[in-house]
Design brief:
Helices cover 14% and strands 18% of the residues.
Length: 154
C-alpha cells in the first residue's frame, strides 16, 4: 500500500509506518482480516461470514444465522432457514446475494432477494420467481377481485 501523505510504499496496515507521518491513520475503519479500509460508512467484520459488511454490527442491527450462513437484519430473526440460502444470485438482478451490500428481503417461502428488487418485482407479480408460491396473503386481494367482479357493469 502507498501512504498518500508521504508516498511511501509499505506493508498493508492501519497506520503509516514512516516516522515522517508519525502514525497517521489510513482510514476511520480498517479490517486486518479483509485488508479493507473505509472512511465514509459504518462497517463491521462478521467473524462467521469472514466478510466486512455495512452496518453497526452483530447483535445491534444484525445477527448471523448459522443455518443460512449469513448476516441478517434483526427483523428477520424469525425466518425460514435454507442452508446456505443466500449463497445464490438474486432472482431479479442476478447479483450474488452473499457478498452484496444491498439490503436483502426474506420471502415467506424461504427464498431471498434484494429489497429494492422485491419492491420493483412486487408491483407486477405476486408469486415467488423461484418456487411460484404466493409472496403474501392473497385473501385480501381475492376479496378485492370478487368485489370488482360483483360490481362490474356488463
Amino acid at each position: 500500500m502507498m501512504c498518500m501523505n508521504c508516498l511511501k510504499v509499505q506493508p498493508v496496515g492501519p497506520v503509516c509506518s514512516t516516522p515522517f507521518c508519525n502514525g497517521l491513520s489510513m482510514a476511520k475503519y480498517y479490517c486486518s482480516y479483509c485488508k479493507f479500509f473505509d472512511d465514509e460508512r459504518t462497517v463491521y467484520n462478521c467473524p462467521f461470514c469472514n466478510l466486512c459488511r455495512l452496518g453497526q454490527g452483530l447483535r445491534i442491527v444484525f445477527f448471523n444465522c448459522m443455518t443460512c450462513n449469513y448476516c441478517l437484519g434483526i427483523k428477520l430473526l424469525d425466518h425460514k432457514c435454507r442452508e446456505k440460502g443466500l449463497e445464490t444470485n438474486c432472482p431479479i438482478c442476478c447479483d450474488f446475494l452473499f457478498t452484496s451490500s444491498a439490503a436483502v428481503k426474506a420471502l415467506p417461502c424461504g427464498y431471498f432477494m434484494h429489497s429494492a428488487c422485491f419492491q420493483a418485482y412486487a408491483c407486477t407479480h405476486y408469486i415467488c420467481p423461484i418456487c411460484s408460491k404466493s409472496m403474501g396473503d392473497m385473501s385480501v386481494s381475492d376479496c378485492f377481485f370478487i368485489y370488482l367482479h360483483l360490481n362490474s357493469i356488463y
